[in-house]
Design a protein that fits this description.
Length: 380
Amino acid sequence: MITEIDFSKYTRFPGEVGNVFDVLLHKAEGIDRLPHWLFAGVLFLVALLPTQANWPYTILLYIFFLLDWLSLALLPVRGRSFGPPKPPVLILAVLRAVFAWLPPPVWIPLQIIGTGLVIYGFWIEPHRLTVTHQTLKTPKLKSGTRLRLLHLGDLHIERATRREEELNCQVKALQPDLIVFTGDVLNLSYLQDRISWNQARQVMSEWSAPQGVYLVTGSPAVDLAGNMPELLAGLPLRWLKDEHISVPVGDECLNLVGVTCTHRPFLDGPRLEETCQGLSDDFTVLLYHSPDLAPIASRLPIDLQLSGHTHGGQVRLPWFGALFTGSLYGRAFQSGRYQLDRLTLYISRGIGMEGASAPRVRFLCPPEIILWEIEGTGQV
């Protein structure tokens, strides 16, 4: 059971400018400004250390490094992703160097496997958009009442790619009654890029559903307060800002609550409580970018919280899960469905990827959209 924690003494929070992760991402961008010849020299030094100047092995390991560099440098050329290649290449080189301390009959096959994993993680899985189907039964809706709710999150547009094309094809094919988006429109590297703005607006302009399209903003460092009014202006969607509305479901209604995320539960919690004042007893859905408000939401008359932000960690290991999540609760909130008392929480793995110098990689954590089939079981 995940219990509420008081974070009011914390000084740094996920999803804001200046937290440790944000600082590291932006400092690492300096690696990409290194001249090619100097960066190539750094990679050679990394190859030299574990192979102990055994030149055939040094050259072989160096070739694996260069193949990674070539692979990542081709991503924007082929329109797959648009991040700086050198920082993740250096990370991959260090990881490869660790295995190169093993005997050559062991480390050479592992390096070949590593190349396959790099190709899969950077080229294939980030575009393997999946549709996750979830069901929820509630006595707060009459028996026979059904709602198809589509949850989208974490677009992080750099440039529109085939992933976004597939996204909108799926949105149309699934024919949801209601669409909700839980924040983070742009990629962290493209917050002031007008091409990214225009392509993000084009993607979102194609979303439509009979009961409407609703959104909340995401992390303050991504969905900048100064950007959002212009970025969303004129789009066929409703931006919920610390408010609740009633949405028709057949001849009934559900409550849709939207709260702006600051990543400070001790501030956002009281705003959520205030926003929930005057709620009817109808089925209630909370839209909030981060899962970290769920322990507070579980005390309130909220049935379903839809969140994102963590991206599921983007890189997951078998039997272990996410290496890192952007949650104050750490790995307790990764992705998927959780039950906190009577509150159902779902954390989306998101659609896009973070930005700055963060690798545009996914492994065992493909992008997803979630179709909820909500069925009433109450008395007619």
